[in-house]
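Supplementary notes for students who missed Thursday's class. We covered one full example, reproduced here. Read the sequence, then the structure, then the short commentary at the end.
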Amino acid sequence: LLFLIQKIAYHFPNPRLALYTIESLFMGVSLCLCRRILQMNLSRVWAFAGTLVMAIFWIPVMEYGNLSETYSMPLVLLPMWLQLNHLHSQKTEHPYWKAAVYGLCFGAVFMIRPNNGLLIAVITFVITIQLLIHKRWTNILYNALALITGVLLAILPFVAYFAANNALKEMIYANWQFNLIYASNLQFSMTWQNFRSVLFFITPAVLC
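Structure (token representation):
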């Protein structure tokens, strides 16, 4: 999916402007989802204020440009919003279509940067535990099938495209292997400057 976004941008006369526009759209959707999540427990005014606070922290991230996190954010927040809606409804059965959306979003994030989909995996785990507690065995089975179908629908078109162009090995390396190598070689020293940076960027998550 990350390659597709780049390909779309490079079809325009000014690819940098096109990428900035795409990023802005993704960021806008993310902030709208944040407002909807906050509005579940807050008034409209406070939810809007909370969204503005998050925007203050998130928008500077766009300064670095073309980050996988920006593209992943709405795909992570959408399952979170759906899950919270489900929990607020206090229903003992989980709709299959929501599981399919979780799968689609996870598959899409997996094609951007796999570790960005960790929260979706946690959401799926929470829903599974809830269904196990209420002994909804059939519902668990159908949700699992819907989830897997969603993941496959998101991933297989890209796999088929790269395989047809004899670039499947390169896709696997660029999407997954390189990410694992990067993560394993990552070194982080907790200096005061690094601590301030981490604190700045995790504040929206803490507030949410």
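Commentary. DSSP finds nine helices and no strands in the chain. The CA atoms of residues 40 and 85 lie 8 Å apart. If anything here is unclear, bring it to office hours.
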